[in-house]
Amino acid sequence: MQSPRLLLGYLKANWYIYACAILAITVANVVQSLYPRVLGDFTDTLQAGGITRSAIIDSSRKLFLIGITFGVLAGIGQYVVMRLGRRFEFVTRQKLFAHFTRLSENYYSKNGVGKMLSYVMNDVTSVRESISMGINQTTNAVILIISVMVMMSLSSIPVYLILVCMIPLLAIPFVVVLFGPMIRNRSMKVQESLAKMTETAEEQFGGIRVTKKFAVEPIMRGRFGQTVDRIADNQLRLVRMSSIFQALLPFLGGLSLIIAIAFGGYLTIQGSITIGHFVALTLYLRMIVNPLQQIGNVINTMQRSRASLVRLNNMLSVQPDIREIDGAKPLASGASDIHIRQLSFAYPGADQQALRNIDLTVASGKTLGIIGKTGSGKTTLVKLLLRVYEPPEGTIRIGGDDVRSTTLASLRSQIGYVPQDGFLFSTTIRDNIAFSNRGISVEKVEHAAKQAQIYTNIMEFPEGFETKLGERGITLSGGQRQRTSLARGFLKDAPILVLDDSVSAVDAVTETDIIDNLRTSRRNKTTIIIAHRISAIKHADEIVVMDKGTIVQRGTHDQLLAQKGLYASLYAIQEEGTRNAEGKA
Ligand SMILES: Nc1ncnc2c1ncn2[C@@H]1O[C@H](COP(=O)(O)OP(=O)(O)OP(=O)(O)O)[C@@H](O)[C@H]1O
């Protein structure tokens, strides 16, 4: 196993419970291995003196005791092991989820959500099966085989006969060594194709509305079909290999039995061993055919889950891109002046810089407007402020502290960020708005909704704020979704509020109302508004115009209008658009 930390850690933590369970299963199997001896002795008694009442009662009592002891002890042992297996599943899923929440946006932009789900579902289940079934069946099988061997050697069956019968079983280690790696490799491929399918399914369900609007369902079905076919191919390859392997071990057990019947039968006819020995020997060998099959099963499952365990351990060892430095300090409470110096940034793997030499100061309590062409770096700037991506050291300071030396939680709790397409969860509108503080009063939630101009819309729903939203807020229009997400930003009332194109989907009148509310509620609080429409930022204390990752103009609305440049051109185009619209109306 490459890096068995996850499983070893769990087994170590629970070793004493496992030890008790294994002890119970061991005793159960030792007791069960007495069974051929009782029957062998019974046969010899029959042969010596015929059938007697006392012999029947005595043997029946022994067999009954063996059955009861085996049933109770094996049952308890198996229950404990299964329970621990389920607990492993639960603990590991929690561990994975906690790990996922620490990974950066950069990781998620490269790895689909479906892939993450596959770890949580398929891989965890596969490892759980192996530890539950593996421990139960291995203990059962190994102990039974050992007990049978011991019982056979303690009996007066000749050793040479036992050894001859065992010859086919010597091939087992070779079979295991040969097939094990092949099964593991094929399992790895199955798990990878399952992950791909979950990823594709997640993406296709997410995009189902676009698919339908473009009437491209057959193409999407074809694409999904391809991923399913890949799984089927990989699974068939695995099943072929596993089946051959699983059949081989009992086959070797069967060969032993044939030798026992042929050679043992011959010795019985010759009078070298008693019929009782012959019966006991064949029963002993018959008894190890099932455990051999179980061992085949277990090795099969173990190889498969080993592939999953490697995947899980690899996943858990992914280091988050954004990490707090040792001794990171919380950002001073209420700090809200922002200083950006010589900030240049390129996305990992990108050959061009998204931001170049940005110098910017937003004094505490002021409003900054950012406008610029699409792709000019506006959102990137905010992502660096929030440390969604890591800015170079010393380039961004809040309240005098380099954001890289602060704790992530304190930094993000000081900033309210409202993106253009804020994600809404499948819960009530109230919970969506009160996202940063579920315990907040209804009045405050309603007030935030009023500020974001969504209150009236919400009250029109029969259940008002208790209305449940479907996947990604499907019951709301684009503009309603945007304003619900905006209300969430208002409610957080953070020292710094960033609106990233957050009023783009509302009409001009509503936008004016929202901006007015914003100006009132954010008086003396730092606010950054990114917009494409000048109407959303013209009131700002300072406006910067961005182009190709740099700031090309800065000033107030009036100062920028007085300059020839991108801002004045944008204004002219937008004013003309508004006049045309009014003319048509
Ligand atoms: N995760 C990413 N990985 C690589 N490049 C990215 C990533 N996100 C954005 N970019 C690139 O960085 C540049 C700036 O993008 P950004 O999102 O900051 O622009 P923007 O000004 O906010 O655009 P818009 O107005 O369309 O929202 C673009 O060229 C974009 O393609």
Which key phrases capture this entry?
Rossmann fold; binds adenosine-5'-triphosphate; 9% strand; ABC transporter transmembrane region fold; elongated; 585 residues; 64% helix; 6-stranded mixed sheet; 4-stranded antiparallel sheet; alpha/beta; ABC1_TM_sf
What features would you describe in this structure?
With 585 residues, the protein is α/β, with parallel strands linked by helices. It folds into two domains: 5-316, Up-down Bundle (ABC transporter transmembrane region fold); 338-420 and 495-584, Rossmann fold. The chain is 64% helix and 9% strand. The chain contains 20 helices and ten strands. The chain has helices at residues 5-13, 15-32, 35-49, 53-102, 105-110, 113-154, 159-166, 172-206, 208-213, 217-270, 275-316, 378-385, 408-414, 429-433, 442-451, 455-460, 478-492, 508-521, 557-562, 566-584; strands at 338-345, 355-362, 367-372, 396-398, 401-402, 415-418, 496-500, 526-530, 542-547, 550-555. The chain has a six-stranded mixed β-sheet with strand order 6-7-8-3-9-10, sandwiched between helices. A four-stranded antiparallel β-sheet has the order 2-1-4-5, with helices on one face. Helix 3 runs antiparallel to helix 11 (275-316), helix 6 runs antiparallel to helix 11 and helix 7 runs antiparallel to helix 10 (217-270). The protein is elongated, with a radius of gyration of 36 Å. The mean pLDDT is 87. It binds adenosine-5'-triphosphate. Residues 109, 347, 350, 354, 372, 374-380 line the site of adenosine-5'-triphosphate (ATP). It is found in: Cell membrane. GO terms for molecular function: ABC-type oligopeptide transporter activity; ATP binding; ATP hydrolysis activity. Residues 21-304 form the ABC transmembrane type-1 domain. This is ABC transporter ATP-binding protein. Residues 338-573 form the ABC transporter domain.
